[in-house]
Design a protein that fits this description.
With 232 residues, this protein is of the alpha+beta class. Helices cover 33% and strands 35% of the residues.
């Protein structure tokens, strides 16, 4: 009886340790890929914005990121006087180092980084995202403004749409930041975490398997114990 119990418990223990190792390794690999993908995306965004010769000053520029800061002077240390948003077009006054001086609003001028703007006469190339997740439900995109998530009625993505998670996947958070392709452009917004399925083995699936293994192990131990007592 003891030998039989030993033969049952040992494989179960090894299998449990194996599942834990897979889950831990998968988490490390997934986190590393998220970091690499995020850096890769940021670099692509920067390079895309510099596909033209910035030594020549354009007459008008279009903002290429979702949101950029507008500075009072051509320095990152200067006061921020406002924000410019994706697709907005501004008249260019001068170019100073890595900044465009723009006509921000009526009689108000500011500076934006040249890396985040594109000559309106140049069509930005399509970026193919190195995606790492899919939508399992049709989803609206959300924008974060003043610590509040606002639904974007212009972006309703269908089920199975491929996206790229940018800041990690946490099932305990309601929203998850991600990028996606839309009409030959790349946008970055938030989506409901429950609507996202990351690539690879999910933590919930591994947890469920481990719980099943634990329950089966306890059942076998109790069964062997009571069966041995009955024989005595």
């Amino acid at each position: 009886m003891k030998n039989m119990l030993f033969l049952i418990i040992i494989p179960v223990m090894f299998f449990s340790v194996f599942c834990c190792s897979i889950n831990f390794s998968n988490s490390l690999i997934y986190s590393k890929n998220l970091h690499n993908n995020y850096v890769h995306f940021e670099n692509n965004s920067f390079n895309e914005s510099n596909t033209f010769d910035t030594s020549e000053m354009p007459e008008k520029i279009k903002i290429t990121l979702n949101k950029v800061k507008v500075y009072e002077t051509s320095s990152l240390d200067s006061e921020i006087i406002g924000q410019a948003f994706y697709g907005e077009v501004f008249n260019v006054v001068t170019k100073q180092n890595e900044f465009y001086e723009i006509e921000f609003s009526a009689e108000i001028y500011g500076f934006v980084l040249t890396a985040y703007a594109l000559d309106v006469q140049i069509k930005s190339p399509k970026i193919f995202l190195d995606t790492n997740a899919s939508l399992i439900k049709s989803s609206f995109a959300y924008e974060l403004k003043d610590s509040e998530f606002i639904k974007m009625d212009d972006f309703f993505l269908e089920t199975t749409t491929r996206i790229k998670i940018l800041e990690g996947y946490d099932i305990n958070k309601t929203y998850c930041k991600a990028s996606f392709d839309f009409e030959d452009e790349v946008f970055t917004y938030y989506f409901l975490t429950d609507n996202i399925n990351p690539d690879g083995i999910g933590s919930r699936f591994v947890t469920a398997i481990m719980l099943i293994i634990v329950c089966v192990s306890i059942f076998l131990i109790l069964y062997s114990f009571f069966r041995g007592r009955k024989r005595k």
